[in-house]
């Protein structure tokens, strides 16, 4: 069951309407939210297929299907903006439409994951950290087997006050952790030899409790539950933008403020 207090922390939802839900509306919300989280991978694939085929009629239909669910869970601002774009879909430049749809899907994917985290927060496995009071610390360990992605993360966090160490394998990360204690982890899930789930489990077994943020493009329930059981505090949905990266990191740690001498 969804908890109203936790739901009010999800930025895409209307906090006032969530707070006013009675049991009947909460049940209706839960049904719609589960419809989104259960079906989003298929809905996303439908949208991407129509987009790649440049089938604007099918694209409009599939986007409208998603917007209908978003309206039922009080993500009306997100839904209404999309519906406005759908009205003008035939007049849009394809490149602009493509960029908008990809960004829209990423936001809905992140929303789906946030809803699942809210629902499964009390499920078995390590507890999910609350992000109410970010700690003033700034060291981050990012682990991904792709050099270009590590470079992108380091570039986005440059001059933000965070100190980022980038490592390209789970084994190398564990060796680094023998002598270092990061304040936050950013882990890719899909890596050779040791994936993000195994690495997270081994980090937790070593006694380190810093928040773990998983990089993912997958919002299905099986993946989310597996990540939470491995110790995930949160997720960063790919492709990543600087603002979204900073927002997710900022839920857990903040650079210490350097006062002028």
Summarize the structure.
The chain is an alpha/beta fold and 261 residues long. The protein has helices at 4-7, 15-19, 23-53, 56-72, 76-87, 94-119, 147-156, 170-177, 196-205, 221-229, 242-250, and strands at 139-143, 163-167, 184-188, 212-216, 234-237. β1 (139-143), α7 and β2 form a beta-alpha-beta unit.
Description:
This protein is an alpha/beta fold and 261 residues long. It is globular. Mean pLDDT is 90; it is low at 122-130. The N and C termini lie far apart (51 Å). The relative contact order is 0.12. The chain is built from eleven helices and five strands, in the order ααααααβαβαβαβαβα. It has a five-stranded parallel β-sheet with strand order 2-1-3-4-5, with helices on both faces. It has helices spanning 4-7, 15-19, 23-53, 56-72, 76-87, 94-119, 147-156, 170-177, 196-205, 221-229, 242-250, and strands at 139-143, 163-167, 184-188, 212-216, 234-237. Helix 3 (23-53) runs antiparallel to helix 6.
Query: If helices are DSSP runs of H or I spanning 4 or more residues, what is the number of helices?
Result: 11
The largest pleated sheet is described as:
5 strands, parallel
Percent helix, as a range, is 40-55%
Fraction in beta strands:
5-15%
- Helix and strand sequence: HHHHHHEHEHEHEHEH
Low-confidence stretches: 122-130
Could you name the CATH topology of the largest domain? Answer: Four Helix Bundle (Hemerythrin (Met), subunit A)
Distance between the termini: 51 Å
Cα Rg: 19 Å
């Amino acid at each position: 069951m969804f908890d109203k207090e936790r739901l009010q922390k999800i930025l895409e939802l209307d906090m006032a309407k969530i707070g006013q839900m009675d049991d009947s509306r909460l049940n209706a919300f839960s049904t719609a939210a589960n419809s989104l989280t259960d079906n989003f991978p298929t809905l996303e694939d439908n949208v991407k297929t129509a987009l790649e085929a440049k089938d604007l009629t099918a694209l409009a239909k599939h986007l409208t299907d998603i917007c209908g669910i978003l309206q039922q869970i009080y993500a009306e601002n997100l839904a209404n903006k999309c519906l406005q774009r759908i009205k003008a879909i035939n007049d849009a430049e394809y490149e602009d439409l493509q960029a908008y749809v990809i960004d829209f899907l990423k936001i809905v994917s992140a929303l789906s994951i946030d809803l699942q985290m809210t629902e499964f927060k009390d499920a078995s496995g390590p507890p999910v950290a609350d992000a109410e009071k970010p700690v003033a610390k700034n060291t981050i360990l990012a682990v991904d087997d792709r050099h270009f992605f590590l470079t992108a993360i380091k570039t986005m966090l440059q001059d933000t006050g965070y100190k980022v160490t980038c490592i390209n394998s789970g084994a190398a990360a564990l060796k680094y952790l023998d002598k270092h204690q990061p304040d936050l982890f950013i882990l890719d899930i899909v890596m050779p030899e040791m994936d993000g789930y195994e690495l997270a489990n081994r980090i937790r077994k070593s006694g380190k409790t810093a928040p773990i943020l998983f990089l993912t493009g997958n919002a299905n329930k099986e993946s989310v539950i597996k990540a939470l059981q491995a110790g995930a505090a949160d997720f960063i949905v790919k492709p990543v933008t600087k603002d979204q990266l900073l927002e997710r990191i900022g839920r857990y740690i903040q650079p210490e403020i350097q006062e002028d001498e």
